[in-house]
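[stage:ingest] chain + small molecule (zinc ion)
[stage:ingest] validated
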Amino acid sequence: MKKRIWSKAVSIFTAILLVVGLVPSTTVAVMAAETNIVYVGGVALSGSSDNIAYATTNKSGELITEGATADNYNIKWDGSTLTLHDATIQKELYASDLPLSNIAGAAIGVINQSGDAGLTVQLEGNNKIEGVSTGIHVRSSGGNAALNITGNGTLVVNSNYLTIQVTSIGGNAALSIENTKVTATSSYSNVVTVQSGNSENSSASVTVDGGSLTATAPSNNVSGIRFVFGSGGSGSGTPNLIVSGNATVRANGSAGGITNNSSTGVQYGTGSSTTGGIVWNGKDGTVYGKVELQEDLEIGEGESLTIEDGASLNTGSHEAIVNGGTLNGEDKITGTVKYAPSITTEFLPEGKVNEEYATSLSANGSEPITWNVSDGNLPTGLSLSTNGKITGIPTVRGNYVFTVTASNGVESDSKSFSISVVDPIYSIQNSGDISFADALEGYTPEVKTIMITNDGNQPITLDQPSSTSFDVGTLSKTELNVGETAEFTVQPKNGLLAGSYEEDIVITGTNNGKSVSTTVNVKFNVKHNAVKVERKDPTCTEAGNIEYWYCETCGKYFQDETLTKELKQEETIVPATGHNLTKVDEKKPTVDAAGNVEYWYCEVCNKYFSDEKAKHEITLEDTIIAKLPKFVSGANQEWTKGSKDGLTFKIDTDIKEFKKVLVDGKELKDTDYDIKSGSTILTLKPSFLDTLSAGKHKIRFEFNTGSVEAYFTVKDKENSSQTESANTGVQNKYGLWIVLLLVAAGGLAGFGILSKRRKNHK
Ligand SMILES: [Zn+2]
Ligand SMILES: [Zn+2]
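[stage:predict] done
[stage:export] tokens:
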């Protein structure tokens, strides 16, 4: 009874610990002491410290008690601890063998209908449970349920349904694994199930302290580890998953690695331990507490490992290997982290027959990474060096598919590639022929751009193009990779004269002694800057011109508007016609009519010339010789001394022609006479006449047009007749008549004498 009361007290204490998630495994072991019947392989083993039960397992996984001893057993039961020693169990408990059927189907089962149910399994060597409905089932209908797996051995459980099941209908349920390696798989259902009562105080816990628990569920929407509260769909209570002692928990399931039906989520932690463990919930691993690896840790494709704040990972003598997965919190790792290689090269460039080929494969991952071709073949002539360089000269066309593998001692990564080997094509093309707009001489050049594109599959080094009629600019680039374009400007040279300019500009390039070229035809028409000159008729003396067109810029002459028929300048000239001269003979002037000088007259231009060669032009006026002066009145006048009136002479000649007047050969002063126009009217003043002696005097008028003379007589006052007779000396009766006749004759003779021909004026 004493023992019983003590056990009750422990149970209550344990229940409290379970609620707060702190279940010392030793406590569970003590709990199990009360349950002294365990069902193993369908056999009820009754044992105690005084009466230890032994059994062996055969090849069929059957339990055999006969012949089993302390020196020869696979199963040992002392009433509190079930020891498995290289045991294989393939038989399960049938319902008909049980007082209640709740643990039917289990390979190892413990049930307590009223109190706590507990079982400690000690593992020695490698143990296996398979081919059964349930692996291990510990069940309490009235208290807490606890399963503690410990020891240095291993346990593999492969069952059809629940693999490890700890069930408390109303209390707490706890699974504890300590320093051992448990691997569990199920064919149809959740793998590890810890089920407690449905209340806020209920606790369901999985504790792994050292060692590992791996629970792998099938694909039918079940879990690796499942916490259940109550028997309904949902419940209250706290699910705990506690790792310590560098333990590892891996739970995989299509419904989630670790699931529960509680309104409270799974509480992960290390319990009271400062050393923690790693929990993999599906592909996501988390490090809790301080963990030192017990074996290499690989983070595979799609996996991630997170080291939480406050946690740390020491790789110890092992390695953390990132092999396609993600490591979060690498800064919280001490020790060795290696990254598996991951080939990052996407594709490989194509090769050209007989052309040098060189490329490098690349991969992420810890160095050194070595490369090799693991399947297929590189193009003939190429090789892959261990440092990832593919080099050589391919010799045969084709598409080569192969697989390369990158290895770094951590892992290796393989990837399939292809290299197509083609014939090299050296080619460039241009952007098209160019026609500049027609321009007039003196134009401002238009600028155009020519583009050169590498349309082959080889890089080309371009040469700077040149031209004779056009100015070409510098190439924008000379090294032209495949598909690249270079450009340069082209423009007509300044000052090109009229004409058509057409040139093939050849752009050349080379690569490895191979030459390429492309030709751009460039056209430019220049026209004359021509102005039409209207026809101008020639004159007698001045040349005219035909209708023509003249280009100021180049100084050329054309006879047609289209500027195709060029002329010499002299051909545009229509020479002067020369005068059509008529000679007019000299004609002497008379007193009644003007005469003219000898001259030549051109009817065409109406001009007059003094010479036959028309060198000296004169005016019509110049040709005229004025008619000779003619006495109108005043000849043979008599003047008596003392007379107050003078003697007036009128001559039919313009006063403008008057030069001078002489009496008896002596020129008169202009004070001696008055002169006025009317042709010419000249009056000798009495003052002058008084100075003359009585007698006959000769007066002479000189004009530019000639001279006329006449006589007049000065008489004394008293005896004018004496004076006359003395002068004449005629005394006979005919004397007066003779004198009169003589005078008359003299008067007549006075006309025309000493007439003067006018000089020609130039
Ligand atoms: Zn011109
Ligand atoms: Zn003329």
